[in-house]
Amino acid sequence: MKSLIILVTFAVCVLRISSLENFYEFTKTFNENGYTYQCDVSESGFVTLYKKNNKWTYIPQKIKSTDEIFYVTAENYVPLWMEDAIGIASDKKMEHAINDAFVTYKEQLEGRQIFIITCINSDTGKIDEVYFEFANFGPYACIPVSVFRELETKLVGLQYTLSPLAKTFNYVYRWEARSF
Predict the structure, then answer these.
(1) Are 153 and 129 a contacting pair, CB within 8 Å?
(2) Do 36 and 52 contact (CB within 8 A), yes or no?
(3) Cα separations in angstroms, 17 against 13, 46, 165
(4) What is the pLDDT of residues 63-79, one digit of tens each?
(5) Nearest Cα to 141, choosing from 118, 111, 108, 174?
(6) Among 160, 6, 3, 14, which Cα is nearest to 85's?
(7) Per-residue pLDDT reduced to its tens digit, 16-30
(8) Residue 134 has pLDDT above 60, yes or no
């Protein structure tokens, strides 16, 4: 009897896992309802998912006047955005948008990480672009591109007050590592 229960439980788990579609198994382009997303899959199986017309994906953060790449290190780290009411409000909106986007999938995502990268316009302080990085062999690979698109539309336009240093860059690279 115990063996039968284990066998049935195993069969149910296998059916559930096999019924999930992996949308990001290979590099491809998604042409959806009025938008186009690119999914780049590395040899190691990690996905970079972004709107096809993003300007800053794969472009390093540079100092405008010298075109020198700016690498953040322990020695040169300074906050790139100022702590103020605008930034705090934007961070709260970002937090809510991220949580809302993945609420349906929270159980499957438990303990799994996603990187949400925002590219902030160094002239305006607004988020101009968003892209996502995650494993193509994990639960994020089963989330349709429309969910990522919806999250992006909620994040683009959020406003930050930038530090004087941040204003010298071509854009401000900011990432969030999230686990649910």
Answers:
(1) no
(2) yes
(3) 6, 20, 48
(4) 999 999 998 777 776 67
(5) 108
(6) 160
(7) 444 579 999 999 999
(8) yes
Q: Phi and psi at residue 82, in whole multiples of 5°?
A: -90, 145
Q: Write the Ramachandran bin of 125: left for phi over 0, alpha for psi from -120 to 50, otherwise beta.
A: left
CA distance 152 to 61: 20
**Separation between Cα atoms, residue 71 and residue 77, nearest integer Å:** 9
Q: Give the model's pLDDT for residue 71.
A: 84
pLDDT of amino acid 19: 52
In the structure encoding, which two tokens stand for residue 93, read together?
Answer: 């909106």
Here the tokens at position 41 are 């899959």
State pLDDT tens for residues 77-94: 667 777 788 888 899 999
Domain ranges of the chain: 22-179
Judged by DSSP in three states, 66 sits in coil
CB 156 within 8 A of CB 130: yes
Q: Which residue in the block uniquely carries the two structure tokens 């953040």? A: 72
Which pairs from 5-8 meet CB under 8 Å and 24+ separation? none
Three-class DSSP category at 114: strand
